[in-house]
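Why do we care about 3D structure at all? Because function follows from shape, and shape follows, mostly, from sequence. That is the central idea of this module. The next example makes it concrete: a single protein chain, its amino acid sequence, and then its structure expressed as tokens.
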Amino acid sequence: MEIYISIILASLLIIPFALKTFSPYVWMDIVYFGDLVRILVKFVARRRRRPLFFVLDRFLEQTEAHPDNTFIVFENESYTYACTDKRSNKIANALQSHAGYKGGDTVALFMGNEPTFLFTWLALAKLGSPVALLNHNIRTKSLLHCFNCCKAKVLIAAAELKEAVEDVLPSLIEQGVTVLLMSKNSDTPGIQSFSDEVEKASDDPIPRSFRSHITFKSPAVYIYTSGTTGLPKAAVVNQNRILTALAVLSSNGVVSSDVFYLNLPLYHTAGFVVGFIGTIETVTYISEFVKQQRHLLCTEVNVTSIIDLRKFLCCQGFARKLVAGSTIILKRKFSASQFWDDCRKHNVTVIQYIGEVMRYLCCAPKKDNDKDHKVRLAIGNGIRAEIWKEFLNRFGNIQIREFYASTEGNVGFLNYVGKIGAIGRVHFFHQKLFPYTLVKYDTERDEPVRDANGLCIESRKGEPGLLVSKITNLAPFSGYAQNEEQTERKRLHNVLKKGDLYFNTGDLMRIDKDNFIYFQDRVGDTFRWKGENVATTEVSDILTICDCLKEANVYGVQVPGHEGRIGMAAVTLKKEVQFDGRKIYNHVVSCLPSYARPRFIRMQSTVEVTGTFKQMKVKLVEMGFDPGRIQDPLYILDDNAKSYVPLTAQIYHAIISGSTKL
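And the structure:
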């Protein structure tokens, strides 16, 4: 018996060490699975509540439980939960009494990052109206296109966007659209002032009956794709999907004591769903206020930081105890020069990033106090491996939670391990809940490779493949508003068996031997030259390692008489650095195979990006490398000169005529 006991005890001691040696991530996998189960259980419990429970109801719960806690800090103003609730009530009451609006109408919100954006969305949620979140940077044709996608009956715009509204006003008037401007007066016929009506309106709560028609399948918001490949598409985000988004921050380790820095656009998924909706769930801190004094907190309190607000409240005798919670520090836009100063000023603990934001921070001038901050967690997607390393070395031990998701997609990954460069980890239980796979993709034909039976062929480990995710009740795809053609293009039929249906992410991925998954490229961004596939993101990463280059946007252009597309890069230079064709040539020759080397380089003052910092390629591809159409300096790789040399009209015509082969 003693022998058996000794064996058992020895096994118990050995197993953890063996697992750590041969399966180093198993404990993290178990914890992640536990988080998945916890989130799913909470989600199912909320789905079963009656009356139906939505994101708005979570906000109202938080308001009732913690009315005096700080919810939003914006510039020199601060708003509590109770104040936010009452502000949204005033907007809702003003709107529902307006002749141009009727309950349930879709409303388009045309506004930058400001508290009124959030107040207005909450107001419309209380009235049961879907909201189209318009990009405040778009104008004329794009603006009308986005507005028409959602068939909105009302447009609510910020005062500073009046001129943009006036540009499309004739079309809006023709459609019978009610146009409301968040100002106290308007001298433009067809545009009505709305702020004055809001100020006069009651702040009484909105009866639940106003939204009784809402179901989990009802649209909550329309969020537009970034438009990297043309006009934006309106992705339908329903109430069910937005309810699941409540867990996005808490599942990443954001707790009630965190201060969240939100500087990404609220019209986009990252800013609105992750930043705003996610924070509603995590704000659960405690405060004590003298009940009869609460109304004083519904006016703007001039503060310069969260700390100042707490001191103010304590000094005024309103609070005996105020414990920090997940407060939103809202910024109008991202600013690399103000980023860390803001974080220090407001004691920010959680930051958010997307696209090129982290690189912009790393490119900012170095300071002695770069590591002097309280940021412990960065959540986002799109950080490149070399920037990840540089960011940690420069700004300190910040946990980076890279994840993968899309506005309209039905699959996501989370890099809960912290593996540099990976977007997530392939997890058995995750794959059972949300079936997905990588399938071989033909970049030349721009479609998945199929076998003799017409089914897709799964990629092997280490090979790039198109990520597709099965469309199920648990992982639905709602499609795009008023665009069945684009919706159908995202549906992939007969993937692993006849009759199945998958969502086509349009993203090429790769899974390594340790089950980490890596983003390779967007379908359409990858091009084929000399019989080889070229991933634009990989080439961009290598180019920006060169001393003189700050940014690089790589794409493929067609050349008459040649199959496929040849590489071209639109680049910007670092400050006070001259273009060095020989140095760049030596760099690409030493780091890239011949087929992947950009044959043409286009110098730009700035690389054009979308509102969410994604590089735009469509116009660049259309213009090609014609010096007659392009005003920017152009260069061509010259192997004889061992340098990038100016692309003249003579060289261009020689290429087009076929006398010069590439």
